TrEMBL record:
<dbReference type="InterPro" id="IPR000834">
    <property type="entry name" value="Peptidase_M14"/>
</dbReference>
<keyword id="KW-0378">Hydrolase</keyword>
<feature type="compositionally biased region" description="Basic and acidic residues">
    <location>
        <begin position="807"/>
        <end position="826"/>
    </location>
</feature>
<dbReference type="InterPro" id="IPR059177">
    <property type="entry name" value="GH29D-like_dom"/>
</dbReference>
<feature type="active site" description="Proton donor/acceptor">
    <location>
        <position position="668"/>
    </location>
</feature>
<keyword id="KW-0482">Metalloprotease</keyword>
<feature type="region of interest" description="Disordered">
    <location>
        <begin position="806"/>
        <end position="826"/>
    </location>
</feature>
<keyword id="KW-0121">Carboxypeptidase</keyword>
<feature type="domain" description="Peptidase M14">
    <location>
        <begin position="378"/>
        <end position="710"/>
    </location>
</feature>
<feature type="signal peptide">
    <location>
        <begin position="1"/>
        <end position="22"/>
    </location>
</feature>
<protein>
    <submittedName>
        <fullName>Zinc carboxypeptidase</fullName>
    </submittedName>
</protein>
<feature type="region of interest" description="Disordered">
    <location>
        <begin position="230"/>
        <end position="250"/>
    </location>
</feature>
<dbReference type="GO" id="GO:0004180">
    <property type="term" value="F:carboxypeptidase activity"/>
</dbReference>
<comment type="similarity">
    <text>Belongs to the peptidase M14 family.</text>
</comment>
<dbReference type="Pfam" id="PF13290">
    <property type="entry name" value="CHB_HEX_C_1"/>
</dbReference>
<dbReference type="Pfam" id="PF00246">
    <property type="entry name" value="Peptidase_M14"/>
</dbReference>
<keyword id="KW-0732">Signal</keyword>
Length: 826
């Protein structure tokens, strides 16, 4: 179904240009109060300030936490660099000055970190150790070495770790060399960049261009440690995407969609395809695209009063006027008169005939004597209201500020009042027997591409079900739940009022932040409102400041939008996969998603088998993204979100994985695209122009390529549901006699978690799990110095147990694996 384009080219948040975003009132209207009648007086404090996107450089995670806690929105575009952290913020001119006062550097257009593409000669190492892969004494390890190509250019990405990396004096450096193919010598030495997060050493890394694919790399530390590693292919040789199937239909969405358009199309899909689709309504209604009508009267000093209606603006609040009246005479009491929706505050006078009502007194009078029209009245922000209130010189109309229409925004009124969110469910067998996949888009209001990407995926399922074999397998093998916009109130505000809106529209702010000048900063970050690793438990990345872009809410699950997600996964227990779709940045991540900053203590990491399954799935998903126009999400942007991005306390992925065992992914679509003309990577934006150069950033291209990835996620889930084969595992090099201590490790033929014992006991699900050597690394190596018997079994991601072993029951012939390492030093 085709829809008209929504032209937002002039309003887009564009990292390349730093475009200004403003909510534009109709011609001839007062921008502070577009619906006020002629002659209505408004405070300039209520006008929306223009904002722009700026690039920042911070000294590290501590400064990032302080900046976020202060209320700044640095959620996207964050990049770890050797000098600290670079990020993006949507700010006013006043906020730029505030950031600079905190020590944040504002970067120019050509400033910031860039990988050094030239071999710099490295350094002179102090006496190399012998190369000893997998040695328990190894001080240097290769974490990963990945080769990929995009737009005709080859790249090598390397991560390596030294056991001495935490050392600060002197800082241990790392040097990288690569060969030029099998059988060639190492060369082209270059210094690697050290990555430190929240005071903890992570690893060293590099990304650079190469003309020839290397076969191996060599990494050397400045203290002499050295190791080699093989180069692997990243996103190469992927199976053909579904879009290459004969007769396959795609490209259904041709413009950005408001929540009303998204929900309307979801309902129409269910009506058109009742045999495979239906609508489920989530039980908890949102706050609604509605606000109380307000006015700020009297400037910013102690004489100022902020007035809020009892009724929502559209339900009568917008009809209220307030007039502070000076009467002739002396010794007059403060009084309030109400005629219909007109409130007259008759200001008090002293014996000399001077005005005598303070702002605090007027606020109290309005709350208690306005015949229920005023719900809230208080001094301006942190004022105590000791100043004497002046007459207004005429009535001031209250407004909810929701009547603005931005140039290019869709026509028609936005429905007011609480919203019920529909879920589009697609699947031939919607009876709980097939693995469920939850696609949740637009938690964050300004992220328009995730919604179109999700809708495009839904359209592909229903349009190709009867004609494409692979799509038929998905629809008949999975049970898909689409939440096309999980934040309809905020999204409407983003479309119609303030493009940069991130949160929902629930205002939890106390009086000091409740005046309409702060209206663009109200709301809760829905992806900080969950229960596992939350800010309420001391994890970093969620703010207690109600105007912060990452405000976590007054308590866990305080918001109906987050409550709905928990309701959905508890009601439909067959949901085993979840993708929370965001923008922009290109990262694909999972757990751990948060950490306690002091000591960088993360939430529990997934078992090695689950981690391997995440990586395997990511490779499949991202290969299909690449197939559309060669957009590559690089390995540095894949993994645990707290490792590749930052700590995000109380995110939905953490809750769903740890509470319900759901494989929960987070996706920042709209990643960097390599531009061969300039030789640079071009970043995305929240609302890129829909049309544009198909090789660069555009909403249409991002929608199509990331829909490819979502379709592949459905195939991952379908394969998972059909997986009935038990995994196989071995102990390498295996049991037998050895004349000296030996290093051994477990290997599996597919992603699987190994449970083992070495004390002679029978292995169970409570036994030790085989873990990674370090995060983002393969399994640990056991240095066996005395005769040891290993007993173990493995469990794959689908729950199949090796050799059909039942770890819960002790049988006569246990089918777990066993091997004995005999150390005979004679």
């Amino acid at each position: 179904m085709r829809r008209r384009h929504l032209n937002v080219a002039l309003l887009a948040l564009t990292a390349m240009t730093g475009s200004v975003l403003m909510a534009t009132a109709p011609a001839g209207a007062d921008p502070a109060h577009p619906t006020a009648g002629a002659g209505a007086k408004r405070s300039h404090l209520e006008a929306q300030e223009s904002v722009r996107l700026v690039r920042l450089q911070l000294t590290g995670a501590d400064m990032l936490d302080k900046v976020v806690a202060a209320g700044f929105d640095l959620e996207h575009g964050v990049k770890r660099v050797p000098t600290g952290i670079e990020g993006e913020a949507v700010v006013t001119a006043e906020q730029v000055a505030e950031l600079q006062s905190m020590g944040v550097r504002i970067l120019g257009a050509d400033e910031g970190f860039a990988w050094n593409e030239q071999a710099d000669g490295g350094f002179q190492a102090a006496g190399r150790q012998a190369v000893a892969p997998l040695s328990h004494e190894q001080t240097v390890r290769v974490v990963r070495a990945d080769w990929f190509t995009t737009k005709g250019q080859g790249f090598l990405y390397v991560e390596a770790r030294t056991t001495e990396g935490q050392q600060e004096d002197p800082v241990v450096g790392m040097q990288l060399e690569n060969d030029s193919g099998r059988g060639t010598s190492f060369g082209f030495p270059r210094t690697m960049s050290r990555f430190v997060d929240s005071g903890q050493y992570m690893f060293h890394r590099n990304l650079f261009k190469l003309d020839e694919r290397p076969s191996q790399i060599r990494v050397t530390s400045s203290t002499g440690g050295v190791t080699t590693g093989k180069v692997s292919d990243w996103l190469e040789n992927a199976p053909p995407p579904l879009t290459e199937n004969r007769g396959y239909k795609s490209d259904f969405v041709d413009g950005y969609q408001t929540p009303q358009q998204l929900y309307s199309r979801a309902k129409e899909i269910a009506r058109q395809y009742p045999d495979i689709a239906q609508i489920i309504y989530l039980p908890n209604k949102t706050n609604g695209y509605q606000r109380k009508a307000q006015a700020t009267i009297g400037g910013t000093g102690q004489s100022a009063v902020v007035v809020s209606s009892a009724a929502w603006g559209h339900e009568g609040g917008n009809d209220i006027t307030v007039d502070f009246v000076e009467r002739p005479g002396a010794d007059l009491p403060l009084a309030v008169e109400v005629t219909g929706k007109a409130i007259r505050v008759l200001l008090a006078k002293d014996a000399a005939g001077a005005l005598a009502s303070t702002a605090a007194q007027v606020a109290t009078a309005l709350e208690t004597q306005s015949a229920g029209l005023v719900d809230r009245a208080h001094p301006y922000r942190t004022n105590t209201g000791t100043g004497i209130v002046a007459a207004t010189g005429g009535p001031v109309a209250l407004t909810d500020f929701l009547d603005q229409k931005r140039v290019g925004a869709p026509e028609g009124e936005v429905p007011r009042g609480p919203a019920t969110i529909p879920v589009l469910r697609i699947g031939k067998h919607r009876d709980g027997t097939k693995p469920g996949v939850l696609i949740q888009a637009q938690d964050h209001a300004r992220e328009w591409v995730p919604a179109t990407t999700s809708l495009e995926s839904a359209e592909r399922l229903v349009h190709n079900y009867r004609t494409d074999r692979e799509t038929k397998k998905i629809v008949e093998g999975t049970d898909v739940f689409f939440i096309l916009s999980n934040n309809p109130d905020g999204a409407n505000y983003s479309f119609y009022n303030f493009a940069s809106q991130r949160k929902n529209l629930t205002n939890h702010c106390p009086d000091e932040n409740a005046d309409p000048g702060r209206r663009d900063s109200w709301g809760v970050d829905l992806n900080r409102n969950y229960r596992v690793g939350s800010g309420h438990d001391g994890y970093a990345g969620g703010s207690t400041v109600c105007t912060s872009g990452t405000y976590q809410g007054p308590e866990e699950l305080s918001e109906p939008e987050s409550q709905n997600i928990i309701w959905l996964v508890e009601k439909y227990r067959n949901i085993k996969f979840m993708m929370s779709v965001h923008s922009n940045g290109g990262q694909l991540f999972w757990q751990p998603g948060a950490y306690i900053a002091d000591g960088r203590i993360t939430t529990p990491r997934p078992p090695l088998g689950d981690e391997a399954f995440y990586w395997q799935s990511a490779g499949r998903i991202l290969s299909q993204v690449k197939a559309y126009r060669e957009t590559v999400v690089t390995p540095e942007n894949v993994g645990g979100s707290s490792d590749v991005l930052y700590s995000s306390a109380g995110n939905v992925r953490e809750d769903l994985y740890h509470t319900y065992g759901i494989y929960a992914f987070g996706w920042e679509v709209g990643g960097s695209v390599y531009n061969p003309a300039t030789g640079n990577w071009q970043g995305g934006s929240f609302q890129p122009p829909w049309e544009g150069d198909p090789n660069l950033v555009s909403g249409h291209s991002e929608t199509m390529e990331y829909a490819n990835g979502i379709m592949e996620m459905f195939r991952v889930a379908a394969d998972w549901g059909k997986d009935k084969k038990d995994p196989k595992s071995t102990l390498v090099p295996g049991g037998g006699k050895y004349r000296a201590p030996v290093d051994v490790r477990f290997e599996t033929n597919e992603p699987a978690t190994v449970y083992y014992t070495t004390d002679g006991s029978r292995p169970t699900l409570q036994s030790q799990r085989y873990e990674a050597t370090e995060f983002r690394e393969p399994g640990q190596v056991f240095h066996v110095t005395a005769t040891t018997t290993f007993k173990w079994f493995s469990v794959d991601a689908a729950g199949n147990v090796e050799n059909n072993y039942d770890p819960t029951k002790k049988g006569k012939r246990d089918s777990y694996r066993t091997a004995t390492i005999r150390i005979d030093k004679r």
